[in-house]
Amino acid sequence: MCEWLKRNPLVISHGLGGFPRFVVAEFPFGSDFRADFVRLCPSSGAWDIDFVELEAPGSAIFTRQGVPAKRLNTAVAQVDAWRTFVETNRPSVLRDLSKFVQKRELVFRHREHEPENDVGRSLYDQRTWVKWGYFIVIGRRKLLTDDELRKKAAFFEHHRIEVATYDRLLEAARKLDDVERESVKRRHGVEGCQPFRPSRTCNSRDAGLPRPR
Q: What is the spatial distance between Cα 213 and Cα 210, in angstroms, rounded to a whole number?
């Protein structure tokens, strides 16, 4: 799944909310950490930076007793360790991330310069406000009961981590497929044409997620 998302970075960009402009994969920081994806959204005086941890699509989010499952607890511990490191080593993390985005950004590819916000300030400019966000993507929505959906939605309030299912990414991929389909129709001026088969640059059917049982 991670490899498919690396080939289709707009799914990560659109699927978790906000309006991120840059996406990178497998960002290493410290000696022990590596974020599956990082999303960056610049504005006039700030940056929103989201670290994303991917777990297996088939993983349970809660046990039968209604408490967080082992896989989710492990992911939460991982993200908590990220947060502690980032808050303790903020200047070095921002400088390393800025250089990494310049070399490895997935949406716009190669960049001549390190990224800047809308007033031309770098990630590590001390005059810039940085808002950090953390996501765990795990499981499927249809496998959750109404009570589990409520608990998942409340997770952010208790842990400052947003837990999302892979359905959000699939929905984003389908919308991108539709946009591409309509774009091709407009370019060719055809309204009643045969169904267009999207290119493999963003085909939601290629994501390989297990179907809910």
A: 9
With beta carbons less than 8 A apart as the criterion, state whether 54 and 75 touch. Answer: no
Q: Tokens 């939601």 map to which residue?
A: 204
pLDDT tens digits, 52-97: 999 999 999 999 999 999 999 999 999 999 999 999 999 999 999 9
Per-residue pLDDT reduced to its tens digit, 9-42? 999 999 999 889 999 999 999 999 999 999 999 9
In what order do the strands lie in the sheet containing 22-29? 22-29, 33-42, 46-54, 129-137, 162-164
C-alpha distances in Å from residue 143, one per residue of 63, 115, 135, 140, 148: 12, 40, 19, 6, 9
Is pTM beyond 0.90? Reply is no
Q: What are phi and psi of 45, to 5 degrees?
A: -125, 20
Identify which of 169, 178, 174 has the alpha carbon closest to the alpha carbon of residue 141. Answer: 169
Structure token pair of residue 109? 């590819």
Work out the angle between the directed axes of helices 90-104 and 70-88 (0-180°, nearest 10): 110
The residues spanned by each domain of the chain are 2-207
